[in-house]
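debug: dumping io for the single-chain case to check the tokenizer round-trip. Nothing else runs in this session.
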Amino acid sequence: MNSLNLLAPAKINLFLLIQGQRPDGYHLIFTLFQKVSLWDEIVLSIAHRERGIYLECPNSNLSSGPDNLAYRAAALFLRETGLDLQVKIVLKKAIPVGGGLGGGSSDAASVLRGLNELAGLPLGPSDLHLLASSLGADVPFFLLEAPAAIGRDIGTDLEVISTAHRWYVLVYPGFPISTRWVYSQYVLTSQDRDTTFGTNRTETVMWQNDLEGLVMARYPEIAQIKAGLVSYGAEAALMSGSGSTVFGAFLSKPDALMAVSGLEANGLNVSLVESL
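debug: decoded output
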């Protein structure tokens, strides 16, 4: 049985603007994805025998069936390639579920890319991108080797970009937030921005998240965490994606460590990571 040990990184959104809505209900976004040093660990194995998918999540209560994006990625790969393979996935979660950090999407991308490698590269980059897009809007970003990219359309139109190195203090408030709920609650207004922002103008929209307001109205803990991060000297504090994780950006590790110590003393779930 051939196998790979994979690291599926988390992401944060350094900004997230809502720019419209497609007829199918999906929202058009303009965002900056940034991978950070928090990983799910995956052991991926294949054997040339009767087709099947076996998923284990030993340290979480996640589904080990088709409700799990890693499982769905394997099933989609087998269906697309027509290969008769037995796939085994052992997924050790470290990225909070429902935390706006893209853990499930990253797992799915790692499974797609890993299976393609183990099977001898039957699919090209454009084929993998299409499969990733059908699994979820964040999945194509995690297929990229690049650590950061601008995302347009529903997040699947990607442009690699360089970002400054920073340390990030991630604060998970202890509860997940449904992405579907957040986007269903977001109301488009005449104030929504157009789609003319170029890559060289990203600094004008840094540290903005159009979804924050409605989430904070329902979960005031998010606003409290943001205020706490700023009080500890964060350059900026922002909710990642549709929440619930909030991050504080720091240019120096010692400053970030001081924030970690202070926030942990308040009983919060805190992680120190850096941009990849």
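debug: round-trip ok. The mean pLDDT is 92.
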